[in-house]
Amino acid sequence: MSVDVKTLIHEGAELTDRALEALIPSAETVPNSIHGAMRHSTFAGGKRLRPVLAMQAAATIAGSVPRGIENLGAALEMLHTYSLIHDDLPALDNDDLRRGKPTCHVAFGEAIAILAGDALQTRAFEVLAGLECPPASTVKIIGLIANAVGTVDGMIGGQVLDIESEGKKPTPELVEAIHRAKTGALIRVSVVAGGVFAGATDEDVARLDTFGRKAGLAFQIVDDVLDMTVDSAQLGKTAGKDLATEKATWPAVYGIEQSERDAAALIEEAFAALAPYGSRADGLKSVAQYLVERKN
Amino acid sequence: MSVDVKTLIHEGAELTDRALEALIPSAETVPNSIHGAMRHSTFAGGKRLRPVLAMQAAATIAGSVPRGIENLGAALEMLHTYSLIHDDLPALDNDDLRRGKPTCHVAFGEAIAILAGDALQTRAFEVLAGLECPPASTVKIIGLIANAVGTVDGMIGGQVLDIESEGKKPTPELVEAIHRAKTGALIRVSVVAGGVFAGATDEDVARLDTFGRKAGLAFQIVDDVLDMTVDSAQLGKTAGKDLATEKATWPAVYGIEQSERDAAALIEEAFAALAPYGSRADGLKSVAQYLVERKN
């Protein structure tokens, strides 16, 4: 592939950051504490992978990254950030550190952290309602994204399965269900929503959906492996935590070597779904390849 | 007014309950705990006032209650319920009882209560994306509602102002800002969104917005007065709590008698905004009148 993937990711992340900067009220806007908290967690060094995937999926359909898609990317990142803030709360994972910085409730207190997560979800849907695309596409994108962050095979559902499974021996079915829902669904819908923004047909949507489903699972397997093999400093969070709390992870069921083979095979299958687009899918494929080969 | 207001409210609430029953996954749907928790709080005896206001606002514009508006009502009620679940959490108001029943975190634990609130917000936007009205109206409704439950003069912003003001002496400006945002914004947008669903013009929207703003403030003043004058059994929640925690309330600033006069004057002003609709607004006006005259 001829695409310089680091440039693609860097430029997509910059575009997303500028959109987030414009879309989240400043910390000087009343009431201050909530806007400070929203910004603390949104600008905590996230890689903006979901926005970049949405942009490259859109480029696969439209031939180039369409104008205005950075707001879709920003909304996806707000939803991702909201889920991290609530996951880190004392009543859930009780994490003090995220990407090497104090988590939202450590910095702002539990009440404001709960409300900052709530508000990031709300703001995401408000931003989606303002997307510069035909109203029918906007409505479709909102419906798909809400479904992907919901309880039935969506992000919250995966979080609940994860909580319910702690301390139990993980089965292959359970691990796949958690991964598909907890992190997979938002990645998958990032790809699909990017396509819809760019005018994807139903056939395009089906292909992007296959790609997003398989690539999303591959990314999560790689995450699980990294959690077991990389130390905390490199990872920017507490390493080995999944094992310590008996979380249902892919390597816990299949071992590290098989997990690495599974991730590679899933990426190949994901790429096959994009064959009809030829070189127009190079950007999307290179980002996915980069994500499964990363070392932290 | 010739409209039997109790019948109007009862029928609107029944319509809303049937929609909520169909739209929230059953407690047997995996993962069970979250759906059980969402249902526990959604079906806890709420009066469905926001849906009823949306329906009667729509009838003011369209001449009768339009088909499909019960899903808009259900979404409004999901948002209201999500805010109650999160308000009741130990880190916020720490309430064990709501409408005479255990609050969500008491019944299901704190983690599931946080996620149930999250999921009700998500499901509300998913339901709105599926409304049976033109896509441009749907997009407008979603944008208005997201704004009304957000941080800038919206529901979450009011909640944060309320938290930040505890223990401080309430000023008239602060009390009005909290009321306008915390409870007023969702009531106001219920009226406006009902109108948009029914095809309201910009002029209609402006009138309904004035009505909703004034009536919403009047309802909240009545709530504050009832909190000080009615005992817990009648109220279904812990009475006098606002005073005990030095919450910024209307009677705390103006006294009970002035508060009652203010509520009555606001309702008169709200009605004036509906004058152009003549008897078509009777349903909406009768519901508002009922709400300021209620005794619990």
TrEMBL record, chains A, B:
<keyword id="KW-0808">Transferase</keyword>
<dbReference type="GO" id="GO:0016114">
    <property type="term" value="P:terpenoid biosynthetic process"/>
</dbReference>
<dbReference type="InterPro" id="IPR053378">
    <property type="entry name" value="Prenyl_diphosphate_synthase"/>
</dbReference>
<keyword id="KW-0479">Metal-binding</keyword>
<dbReference type="InterPro" id="IPR000092">
    <property type="entry name" value="Polyprenyl_synt"/>
</dbReference>
<dbReference type="GO" id="GO:0004659">
    <property type="term" value="F:prenyltransferase activity"/>
</dbReference>
<protein>
    <submittedName>
        <fullName>Polyprenyl synthetase family protein</fullName>
    </submittedName>
</protein>
<comment type="similarity">
    <text>Belongs to the FPP/GGPP synthase family.</text>
</comment>
<dbReference type="InterPro" id="IPR008949">
    <property type="entry name" value="Isoprenoid_synthase_dom_sf"/>
</dbReference>
<keyword id="KW-0414">Isoprene biosynthesis</keyword>
<keyword id="KW-0460">Magnesium</keyword>
<dbReference type="Pfam" id="PF00348">
    <property type="entry name" value="polyprenyl_synt"/>
</dbReference>
<dbReference type="GO" id="GO:0005737">
    <property type="term" value="C:cytoplasm"/>
</dbReference>
<dbReference type="InterPro" id="IPR033749">
    <property type="entry name" value="Polyprenyl_synt_CS"/>
</dbReference>
<dbReference type="GO" id="GO:0046872">
    <property type="term" value="F:metal ion binding"/>
</dbReference>
